[in-house]
Write a structure and sequence with these properties.
8 helices, ABC transport system ATP-binding protein, binds adenosine-5'-triphosphate, 32% helix, Rossmann fold, seven-stranded mixed beta sheet, 11 strands, alpha/beta, MacB-like_ATP-bd
């Protein structure tokens, strides 16, 4: 894992430049990422929104080193300096991910044979058991209402409880960057609010960077900024938008499609501090 020679601006946690991803070829080719460039500031909560199929999940997987772009670069700020994911071997990438990244998957991705507690502690046990802060573990588990479910295996948990186990798993080792793909999608309003609250706390109290895909404008309004995707590109970045402003921006992105991103430059909207 070799730090880049070019200095990365201090306050950037993740930077992507000209990312392209293509599935298939010819007439059936799908391009979920089209020369997409984006930067996520460190210690901030950023939401990613966009119409279905606009490339949100693909972007998250590629940024987290779980999938590889066809072209473009991703730079991750680590304790030892900025690291370009493209320059890493599979083994180095795994180590960088374990040390720096937490991921909350849309489909939970829990290990069926393991209890909730074992699932939550899996990333830390894979790294040799380091960074297990039992007080923080208890705090996260309590906040997510999982204290009496720790001995259960995933099939004994509801979908919402499984999602909360996945959230706890991503947070307990306190990675610098947490990617969350629709973390509240399967939760009721109360459980969803707890998860958002915990992600907000991760940013405000623990200085982590959270990048969250959501379809829910109210959830996105909890974030500091929202990056809006359309057709595999960033079309707008809204700072401190309200839920109605986000809902309106989403409608516009859905109706304008690729026309909104034709210039290749995204708009930046400062919508004021209301949430
Ligand atoms: N492994 C794959 N093979 C082929 N096509 C894929 C694959 N993964 C994603 N796609 C396609 O890439 C496009 C973007 O998918 P992606 O899941 O990134 O979108 P999304 O914005 O997250 O959508 P949603 O909001 O519906 O979850 C879609 O057209 C999808 O069908």
């Amino acid at each position: 894992m070799k730090p880049l020679n070019s200095p990365n601006p201090v306050h950037e946690a993740v930077r992507a430049e000209s990312l392209t991803k293509v599935y298939g070829d010819g007439d059936t080719a799908v391009k979920p990422l089209q020369e997409l460039s984006v930067s996520f500031p460190a210690g901030c909560f950023t939401a990613v929104m966009g119409p279905s199929g606009s490339g949100k999940s693909t972007l998250m997987h590629v940024l987290a080193g779980l999938d590889v772009p066809d072209s473009g670069t991703i730079t991750l700020a680590t304790e030892s300096g900025p690291v370009s994911l493209a320059g890493l071997s599979e083994k180095q990438l795994t180590l960088v991910r374990r040390a720096n990244i937490g991921f909350i998957f849309q489909a939970y991705n829990l290990v069926p044979a393991m209890t909730a507690e074992e699932n939550i502690l899996l990333p830390t046990s894979l790294s040799g058991g380091r960074n297990v802060d039992s007080e923080f573990f208890d705090q996260v588990v309590d906040r997510l209402g999982l204290a009496d479910r720790l001995g259960h295996r995933p099939f004994e948990l509801s979908g919402g409880q499984q999602q909360r186990v996945a959230v706890a798993r991503a947070l307990v080792s306190r990675p610098a960057v947490v990617f969350a793909d629709e973390p509240t999608g399967n939760l009721d309003q109360t459980a969803g609010a707890e998860v958002l609250d915990l992600l907000r706390t991760a940013v405000d109290e623990f200085g982590q960077t959270v990048i969250m895909v959501t379809h829910d404008a109210t959830a996105a309004a909890q974030a500091d900024s929202t990056v809006l995707l359309s057709d595999g590109r960033v079309v707008e970045t809204l700072h401190h938008p309200s839920a109605p402003q986000l809902a309106a921006a989403m409608l516009q992105a859905a109706s304008s499609g690729s026309a909104g991103s034709a210039s290749g430059h995204d708009r930046v909207t400062e919508a004021g501090p209301q949430r």
